[in-house]
Design goal:
The complex is a heterotrimer of chains A (101), B (305) and C (384). Chain A has helices at 32-36, 69-73, 90-96; strands at residues 18-22, 42-48, 54-58, 79-83. With 101 residues, chain A is α+β, with helices and mostly antiparallel strands. Chain A has a two-stranded antiparallel sheet with strand order 1-4. The N and C termini of chain A lie close together (6 Å). Chain B is an alpha/beta fold and 305 residues long. Chain B has a single domain (41-295), classed as Rossmann fold (3-Layer(aba) Sandwich). Chains in contact: A-B, B-C. Chain A binds chain B through residues 19-26, 28-32, 35-36, 45, 47, 50, 53, 56-58, 61, 69, 71-80, 82-85, and chain B through 1, 3-4, 8-16, 19-20, 22-23, 32-33, 35-38, 41, 46-48, 50-58, 60-62, 65, 207, 209-210, 213, 246-248, 251-252.
């Protein structure tokens, strides 16, 4: 998020971060998760699973906000995101807000 | 929750089932987290039989979230389905589930519900099963306001048997039994069900995962006959036979051509071939259920004695 | 006595259909789904009246297909359930009867037979669905079918039908007929304590260990109800012991024969018949339902004329008493099989006699019971 001035309560709100997990052998390469991820985290990989389907990979996992849309929209129950807990405090939030979208 | 560092790609999560292990790409880590929905799925039967880009899996995914969000204890749910691609849903959900005869899920569900009204009975079936062969049972259960929820996955075709024309197939669409284009009028399913007395009628598409889930939550919480129609892509048959691409392309079509009109007059929500689809919550009203009326009669009778 | 009782202990004057309903209530039936059809409508009407009194559920479904589906659902909801119909409805129920057989669902289906085929004779008697009772639905499965010949038996055999359905975990048929259904006679209903009921065979195993289609030693699996956290899956597809669809030849060949075997292996316990005068018989009249009442008179007349004739009345039409008929065929001259159809149970008699004795059919296309003289003539012919 980009702000024209730093909000006064910025330290109370943290953009969630997520980590993607994939069950490769369940994926059928439908592409729904890639298309509908609101942060464009995913793309279809060059690699493929045992059935020959190209499964997704993360291009910029830092952008994942653990919205779980990929998890819900996947027809195969092959992908989900997991919330990442921060070890460091608000300061790193400020630095992160410069990047991403 | 441990972080799994990897050079590229995504950490491979463990299969919940006894299936083949994911290829090892990092140093061994503690067992990776299970898919959050696997708890309510029969993981030993996954991957399921539905085609790539089929929308049924997405509907099941939203439904599993709806069960968890509904506030209703899981063991109270009983899933009843009929025959067809969507009919296979009962076999994948890890709750009391019944896979019955073609078109007859609703009478079975009626008996199940009346025998034990504590059960939350959900009929999960397809358009052909519910509206063609099962049409009579659909309208009577709606008329009686039986307290069950019916989720109708409408892919405009009979999928399991290879892509025949259904009473929901839009005018002009090609199927194996309408090879020159369907010449019949299709059903406007929300209108049909609403006019028979359903107390909750909503329509979404497989794309609208969050709103579909919310509709499913409202439907199961609703007292009375609640109906959710979900327009879903059928890639191998409907999309392919009509040169519409795959389910992926149909999802994009839903994205660009759906109009959300809550409270719309259901007589205006028909679906033409590759035309706009009206979605939303159309009916949400209160009305005594079949059992309410039955019990009311009995109490009145008992007071007379 | 209060009509809020399920068991109306006492002496009554009631017709067969009403007696069927009372028998069901005495057996603990608390769910009835039906559709009006002559001559079975009185069963539904009595149930509609009495379910309100005993706190059960009566629902009139939109057709017979829905009725059969609803009673299967109610059984899995934990109740004893029943439906009643006649020929045309019986045909409609066949697909769901097959579902009940494949899923091994206990319930009772009453067919008050009338003249057919098709719409036929709605108000007149027939016994024309006997083979359909055995073979009506597609695929292989075993059948238990009981034939009452009086309102008293309508009461008694309906209770037996529920007990058999719980013991062997399948839908059981009561094959009544229009005359027995509409005839009014004395029915004695005993005190509830004297009525023996078989409760649902609930598994002792906890969730996780229980498998809905794993048979016990008697080839019958235990049962549960939905809502008990067993998370069971029940399907009409060929399935394994867990209930999961397994549409392969090996699973079919392993699991489906048991649907027949569980009846065949237990046939000696299930088969019931009423026999009289077999010891020195030269002719045996094999009969069932209302025809057995007429045959009784014909047998007495024949005996009066010196013919050594016995009567063998089927109480269970299915499983058929193969062993008893086979043994008789070795020592009698002939069988006489009167029935209100053009040849159904007679084929079973012929099959079991295997050519050792003559079999004379006394058929009747339907609409009226036999004249005793017709049966008498056949008895004398068989004795020749």
């Amino acid at each position: 998020m980009r702000f024209w001035r730093t909000p006064l309560d910025q330290d109370r709100f943290h953009t969630p971060r997520g980590r993607i997990h994939l069950i490769v052998e369940r994926c059928k390469g439908c592409g729904f998760c890639v298309e509908y991820c609101p942060r464009d985290v995913l793309r279809l990989s060059e690699r493929f699973n045992k059935k020959g389907y190209h499964y997704p990979e993360a291009v910029c996992e830092d952008a994942c906000v653990d919205c779980n849309l990929c998890e819900v929209i996947c027809p195969e129950f092959a992908i989900f995101s997991e919330a990442v807990t921060e070890e460091s405090g608000p300061a790193s939030d400020a630095t992160r807000q410069g990047g991403g979208r | 929750m441990k972080k799994q560092e990897q050079a590229a790609g995504i950490p491979q999560a463990a299969e919940a089932s006894a299936g083949p292990a994911a290829p090892a790409t990092t140093a061994p880590a503690p067992a990776a987290p299970q898919h959050p929905k696997d708890r309510l799925l029969r993981g030993d039967r996954l991957p399921h039989i539905w085609c790539p880009t089929c929308g049924i899996g997405t509907c099941v995914s939203s439904f599993v979230e709806a069960i968890e969000a509904s506030g209703i204890a899981e063991e109270r749910f009983a899933i009843v389905s009929g025959i067809g691609c969507t009919g296979r849903v009962a076999g994948y959900i890890k709750l009391d589930s019944f896979h019955t005869t073609h078109g007859r899920a609703i009478p079975f569900a009626t008996g199940l519900h009346l025998a034990n009204p504590e059960l939350k009975v959900v009929v999960f079936s397809g358009d052909g099963d519910l509206v063609a062969i099962g049409g009579n049972h659909l309208i009577h259960a709606a008329r009686r306001n039986i307290d069950i929820t019916v989720i109708c996955v409408n892919n405009f075709i009979y999928g399991m048997t290879g892509g025949q024309c259904a009473p929901t197939t839009p005018y002009g669409a090609r199927t194996t039994t309408s090879p020159h284009g369907n010449c019949e009028y299709p059903f406007n399913v929300p209108h049909l069900v609403a006019s028979c007395g359903a107390v909750y009628v909503a329509r979404w598409t497989a794309l609208h995962v969050r709103r579909m889930k919310q509709a499913m939550v409202e439907a199961v919480q609703k007292r009375g006959f609640s109906f959710v129609e979900v327009i879903a892509p059928c890639s191998t048959l409907y999309a392919r036979k009509n040169r519409l691409g795959t389910g992926y392309d149909l999802m994009k079509f839903y994205h660009d051509n759906c109009e959300v009109r809550h409270g719309a007059d259901t007589s205006t929500v028909d679906i033409g071939f590759q035309e706009r689809i009206v979605v939303g919550k159309f009916v949400d009203l209160e009305k005594p259920t079949f059992l309410d009326r039955l019990n009311e009669h009995r109490e009145r009778r008992a007071r007379k004695d | 006595m209060s009509k809020n009782e399920a068991v109306l202990t006492g002496e009554h004057f009631m017709n067969g259909d009403v007696a069927v309903a009372e028998g069901a209530l005495a057996a603990g039936c608390t769910f009835f789904a039906g559709y009006p059809i002559t001559p079975a409508t009185e069963v539904a009407e009595r149930m509609a009246e009495r379910m309100a009194e005993v706190g059960g559920i009566y629902i009139q479904m939109e057709d017979e297909i829905a009725s059969m589906g609803a009673i299967l659902g109610a059984a899995w909801g934990g109740r004893k359930s029943m439906t009643a119909t006649s020929g045309p409805g019986f045909s409609l129920m066949m697909e769901n009867l097959g579902l009940g057989m494949m899923t091994e669902t206990p319930c009772v289906l009453v067919n008050v037979q009338r003249g057919g085929p098709s719409t036929g004779l709605p108000t007149l008697v027939g016994q024309q669905d006997m083979m359909q009772a055995r073979w009506g639905s597609h695929g292989d499965y075993g059948v238990i079918a009981l034939c009452p010949n009086s309102p008293q038996e309508c009461f008694d055999l309906t209770i037996d039908a529920f007990n058999l359905s719980e013991t062997y975990r399948l839908p059981v048929l009561v094959m009544s007929d229009e005359v027995v259904g509409h005839m009014t006679e004395k029915v004695v209903i005993p005190p509830a304590e004297r009525i023996q009921l078989v409760p649902r065979r609930h598994t002792p195993l906890p969730p996780g260990e229980y498998r809905p289609f794993e048979p016990r030693e008697d080839l019958v699996p235990d049962m549960v109800a939905a809502g008990e956290n067993y998370r069971l899956h029940v399907t009409g597809l060929t399935h394994d012991e867990r209930g999961y669809p397994a549409v392969t030849a090996p699973v079919q060949q392993r699991t489906v024969p048991r649907l027949l075997e569980k009846i065949r292996a237990n046939a000696e316990r299930i088969v019931r018949f009423e026999a009289d005068g077999l010891e020195d018989a030269q002719v045996v009249v094999v009969c069932y339902g209302i025809t057995s009442r007429v045959a009784r008179l014909a047998v007495d007349l024949a005996r009066g004329r010196g013919v050594r004739v016995g009567i063998f009345r089927l109480i269970t039409a299915w499983p058929f008493p193969e062993r008893a008929i086979g043994e008789l065929s070795a020592r009698v001259r002939g069988f006489v099989v009167p029935e209100i159809n053009l040849g159904q149970m007679v084929h079973e008699v012929e099959r079991c006699a295997a050519g050792r004795a003559r079999t004379l059919h006394v058929g009747n296309a339907g609409g009226s019971v036999h004249e005793p003289e017709t049966i008498l003539a056949a008895i004398e012919e068989a004795a020749r």
